[in-house]
Structure formats: structure tokens, C-alpha cells
């Protein structure tokens, strides 16, 4: 097994995350980012842009908050990848066929709460009236809300039916409206070029593991959040088949084994790092570059934990603190919030040079359509 030097591992991660290439600006850039990444993780919290906004803005200029959901309608659907994500529409045929077989996606608990006739009714209503948010569906009574470790689901039967149809890919979430609500629609109408695509030749787990490795750059063999929704494939022989076929390679970074694509390992390391060093950007807290926290710590010597769900007394940094990528390294972080047309920069850590700092904050302000930046109360640590 080959051991990757730190700079080689860093280059692989930056390449997989798309930071060694130039993306078009505006809408074409949003499309190109999804083409490169396959999926963009979602989170609804919006302090200075939602995570999807921040992921795209770190790569493509000329985008603003909310553009992602609008531009990617017809090109994507929402489902589970690395947790809930915007998924490239080219993967729909795999998801459509796997949804019939996967108990987790089928969500038998939802199905037990709903009569089959209600699913048919909701499907027919969306066919007639969609795309539409589930909140706009005709009321069909109440059900007992499901509880996932304190996270409560809906108690509206028709909304639960829409979610059940969505997990089975009978409906898709094709985007969001101006209020951030999921828009349910028929696959044939939402992603017509992909809805009826033939069953792919590659088995679901093989295709998705390769795609996950491509997006991650280095995928830990030890499991963890990076294997979200693919945990079965880690231990059922899928990885061994891909290794034997030469589609994946196993490498070591520090003391840990990882999976990588042979073509990714073959990149020109100095050139990749030089290209990535040309930009200074604020990263979203769920940017794909940050998915494996242990790997980020080993390769970038940067310990990042998103503390938004920690009690305030347990936070080391703050509520919505984002890393800053500059000079192909992570060595700074910041916290900011948007207030109307002003981007207020509240805290800053690290020794980032002023030109890089100004470039990163300026790009963030542009994405938020802020006409001014207020750092008058900045705390610098």
C-alpha cells in the first residue's frame, strides 16, 4: 500500500473539491460545480448564505443566495447521498431502481402509518398541480409524528405521504421555492431527460462508491460519516471488487487507509497546489473539502468542527464559524452574518494576509448581495 506524502494528499483533496480549476461565472458556474461535485450537501441554516450557496460561491463567482435551487431545477433532485443533498440528475436511474430494494429509503415506518390509497391520491394531486410544496397539498388528516432521537417528523398525513413517495423516487424534490420549501414533482416533468433512463449496468453500490470516492478524493476505509447511506457497501465485498478491478486504489495517509481513484492519484501535485493557491474563499461548514474532519486535521493541520448544534457553553469558536481557504491551505476561520444589505464580520481567527482576507470576505459579500461590509465590531483572535 502506497503512503501519500502530505502535499500529495492535500492536492488530491483540493482537486476532488474542484479548487484547482476555473469555473464559469453565474448560472453556468452553478451547473458546472454540480457537474464536478455530483452532489451538494443541504442545510437550511442561513447566516451568510445556506451551505449550498456557500459551496457554489467558493467555486463560481457571480452567484447569489438562492440561485442554486433555481438554476439546478431540471438538472438535479434532492435525496440522500452524504446526508441530504442536491444530487446530479444523471444518478436518478440508480436511485430510482435502488429505492425499491433499500429498506431505509422505503421507510417502512412511514408506510405503516399511511393507507396505500393515500399515496395514490397524493401522487395524483402532485401530477395535476405540481411542482408544489407539500404544505399546499389537500389536507388528509393527522398521523402520529415519528421521532428520530428528538427530531420530530410531520403529523400531517398528506405531507408524510409526499415524503414516502419521495424516498421511493415516485416523486422528486426538484428544487425550492422562494420560502425555501421543497417542491415535489413527477420525475417525468422535473427531470425529463433522466426519469426514464434505462437501468444502469453497474450495480448501485459499485457506482455510488466510485462516485463518492471521486467527490471525496480520499475515502476512509474505517467508515464514519463519509460513508453515509453507503455503509453496507463498505463491508459487503463491493470495495474489494472495485480494488481487484483496478477502479480504486488503497493508499495510506498517516496511519489511516483510504480509497482513491487511480486517475486522481496521478494528478500533477505542484500544478494542482499552485492553481488552488490562486483563490481565497470562505467555505461552507459542510463543504466536501471538510467532510472528513480527521483527514482535514492530518493533511491541513486544521481542526474544524461545526459547533452550531453544541450548547453555547461547549463551543470553542462560535455558532456559525466557517473556514477560509487561501494559498491552498486552511489556516483561518471567520464568523459573519448578513443583515439586510450589510455583511457584518463578527470574528476572525488566524494569520491570513490582508489581501487574501479581503478577497475572501469580498466574495462572500457579493454572494450575499451586500452593498457594504461592516467590521467595526470585529473581534480578532
How would you characterize the overall build of this protein?
- With 381 residues, the protein is of the alpha+beta class.
- The protein folds into two domains: 18-190, no CATH class; 280-380, no CATH class.
- Helix content is 36%, strand content 20%.
- The chain contains 17 helices and 17 strands.
- The chain has helices at residues 6-16, 26-37, 51-57, 67-71, 92-98, 103-106, 108-112, 116-129, 157-167, 187-190, 204-216, 231-235, 238-244, 262-265, 269-276, 293-300, 354-367; strands at 2-3, 39-41, 76-81, 83-88, 147-148, 151-152, 172-176, 182-185, 219-220, 249-253, 256-260, 280-282, 321-326, 329-339, 342-350, 372-374, 379-380.
- The strands form five sheets. Strands 12, 13, 14, 15, 16 and 17 form a six-stranded mixed sheet that branches. A four-stranded mixed sheet has the order 1-10-11-9.
- Helix 1 crosses helix 15 and helix 8 packs across helix 9.
- It is globular, with a radius of gyration of 21 Å.
- It starts with a strand and ends with a strand.
- The model has no long low-confidence stretch (mean pLDDT 92).
Amino acid at each position: 500500500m502506497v503512503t501519500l506524502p502530505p502535499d500529495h494528499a492535500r492536492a488530491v483533496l483540493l482537486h476532488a473539491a474542484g479548487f484547482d480549476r476555473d469555473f464559469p461565472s453565474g448560472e453556468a458556474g452553478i451547473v458546472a460545480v454540480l457537474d464536478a461535485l455530483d452532489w451538494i450537501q443541504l442545510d437550511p441554516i442561513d447566516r451568510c448564505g445556506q451551505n449550498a450557496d456557500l459551496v457554489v460561491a467558493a467555486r463560481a463567482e457571480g452567484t447569489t443566495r438562492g440561485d442554486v435551487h433555481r438554476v439546478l431545477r431540471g438538472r438535479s433532485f434532492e435525496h440522500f447521498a452524504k446526508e441530504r443533498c442536491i444530487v446530479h440528475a444523471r444518478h436518478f436511474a440508480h436511485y430510482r431502481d435502488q429505492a425499491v430494494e433499500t429498506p431505509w429509503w422505503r421507510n417502512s415506518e412511514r408506510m405503516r402509518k399511511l393507507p396505500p390509497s393515500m399515496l395514490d391520491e397524493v401522487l395524483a394531486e402532485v401530477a395535476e398541480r405540481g411542482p408544489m410544496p407539500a404544505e399546499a397539498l389537500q389536507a388528509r388528516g393527522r398521523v402520529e409524528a415519528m421521532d428520530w432521537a428528538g427530531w420530530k417528523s410531520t403529523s400531517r398525513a398528506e405531507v408524510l405521504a409526499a415524503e414516502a413517495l419521495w424516498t421511493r423516487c415516485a416523486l422528486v424534490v426538484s428544487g425550492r421555492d422562494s420560502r425555501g420549501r421543497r417542491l415535489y414533482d413527477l420525475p417525468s416533468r422535473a427531470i425529463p431527460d433522466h426519469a426514464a433512463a434505462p437501468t444502469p449496468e453497474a450495480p448501485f453500490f459499485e457506482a455510488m462508491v466510485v462516485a463518492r470516492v471521486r467527490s471525496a478524493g480520499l475515502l476512509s476505509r474505517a467508515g464514519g460519516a463519509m460513508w453515509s447511506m453507503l455503509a453496507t457497501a463498505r463491508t459487503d465485498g463491493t470495495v474489494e471488487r472495485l480494488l481487484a478491478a483496478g477502479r480504486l486504489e488503497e493508499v495510506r495517509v498517516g496511519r489511516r487507509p483510504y480509497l482513491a481513484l487511480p486517475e486522481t492519484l496521478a494528478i500533477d501535485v505542484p500544478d494542482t497546489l499552485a492553481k488552488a493557491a490562486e483563490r481565497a474563499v470562505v467555505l461552507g461548514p459542510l463543504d466536501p473539502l471538510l467532510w472528513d474532519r480527521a483527514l482535514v486535521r492530518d493533511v491541513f493541520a486544521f481542526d474544524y468542527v461545526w459547533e452550531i448544534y453544541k450548547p453555547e457553553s461547549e463551543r470553542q469558536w462560535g455558532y456559525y464559524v466557517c473556514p477560509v481557504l487561501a494559498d491552498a491551505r486552511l489556516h483561518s476561520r471567520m464568523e459573519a452574518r448578513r443583515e439586510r444589505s450589510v455583511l457584518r464580520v463578527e470574528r476572525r481567527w488566524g494569520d491570513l494576509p490582508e489581501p487574501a482576507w479581503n478577497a475572501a470576505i469580498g466574495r462572500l459579500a457579493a454572494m450575499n448581495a451586500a452593498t457594504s461590509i461592516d467590521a467595526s465590531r470585529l473581534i480578532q483572535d
